[in-house]
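Bug: token stream looks shifted between consecutive jobs. Job 1:
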Amino acid sequence: MQVGVGRRSLGDTVRAYVALTKPRIIELLLVTTAPVMFLAERGVPDLWLVVATLVGGTMAAGSANVLNCYLDRDIDLQMRRTRRRPLPMHGVSARETLIFGVLLGIAATLMLGLAVNWLSALLALTANLFYVFGYTMFLKRRTSQNIVWGGAAGCFPPLIGWTAVTGSISWAPIVLFGVVFFWTPPHFWALAMRYKEDYAAANVPMLPVVATETRVITEITIYTWATVLCSLALWPVADTGALYPIVAAVLGVAILIESHRLLGKVRSGVTGVDLNPMRLFHLSNSYLALLFLVIAIDAVAFA
């Protein structure tokens, strides 16, 4: 039973609601939206369209994250990494969280539909529903492949950014969907290795909980290779300028070196914290952000 929410200041309440949306995750989603709009436009897109797409996308992602907090409030309380979120800390009530998440999702759909186009709105709504019902409610607590398939919800921003400009889907955003799809497992499994005990205590079967470190890092390496190869496929598919494939190759080499460093260490008998998987986690954040940034720069430079 949840303890009642005590008296709160306006500032505390606002901070709690913002925290429910998981702003750091939203930042990464926006990074994979805006640059694709530059690629679709083959230059600088309309500023209002960019703002409307990013605001609507922020609300859609925020809604999914809020509803995730609502559904996962029991396990968030058990995990060190999440126990200071607003619901475990009683900063908001479960009822308030549910209402906020649903209203935010409705507002996001209307915002994107009326200010951008209804295809983008439908894609954002699909991602939202899949993250809540597919990943959070079904996959997360049932299979070690949860983040592989559940992570597909986070792959929709490139599609949304592209359709916001063009009103249709083509191969370029599908390739970028693939980049984020393959990138997600190594990114998240590196984090899950660091917090393996948390997931085990909450009975969440993340791969690092149910598999050996050797198997986890082997799969991380395989998915990293798939990420890099998929990123290079954008060059011929989208007919980018020369800058993109050069930077994509350099970034790919960097993240592959790190994944093979992990693989070499675990094969030599290194285990636990000495593997330092968080190095790959942080590098993967930089990799994705820089990869999409160069997409926008290339689109403007070679317009």
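Job 2, same session, no restart:
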Amino acid sequence: MRIASLYRYPVKGLSPEPVTSAILEEGAYFPGDRLFAIENGPSGFDPTEPMHQPKIKYLMLMRNEVLATLRTRFDDATGDLVIAGAGGEMLRASTTSPEGRERITGFFEGFMPGALRGTPRLLQAPEGYRFTDSRSGFVSIINLASVADLEARIGLPIDPLRFRGNIMVEGLDAWTELDLVGRELETASGVRLQVLKRIERCAATNVDPQTGARDLQLPKALLTAFGHVDCGIYCRILKGGRLAEGEQFDIEDVPAALGIS
């Protein structure tokens, strides 16, 4: 089970950023992932008491496929969010200043006014919280062999980035990752993950991450072929360390009494 590539998604619903390595911390999330969300009208999110919110309260690909036409990048050093389109850079604004956040709000007001239920607002996750779809979405893994198998079954190409995973792996038989729930994954360097659950897929995967076209029906294809809508797994970080492209995971059994939820 080899790591083919790594990705983070600094802003929920916006484009991925490939990384060659990442420093994972025990009990934390994939670094730099889902740090921000764009509130689509008042969501009720309180950063002083962060509670998991349904993704429908934010701008997201399931309903706002036009987001896929944007290319975004977050600069960790400066806190700047850079948004580009087909014609080049459209916005560069600070996420750390009121003026910068207002510019980001203004960009989405102008870019997609018909999709807004109210004033959009940039939300930043407080320490220990992330804007993931699942409460236990600490780290997500996508098996490239499973994507290739689904691709063969529908007879159309599928970009693995439709599944918005953090870790793309190869060398594992198609769909066998779904049977890893309750087991642990460990690298030679000592990074250790616990597989928590399968990832249920929604209509966001129907959107081409390059063009924004809603051109496939992947949850329906999964249900037709396999009787479920699962593709990928969520993991918890049991032991941190550096994770890099090309590293391998060993798959280990653990006592059944641990209890996974």
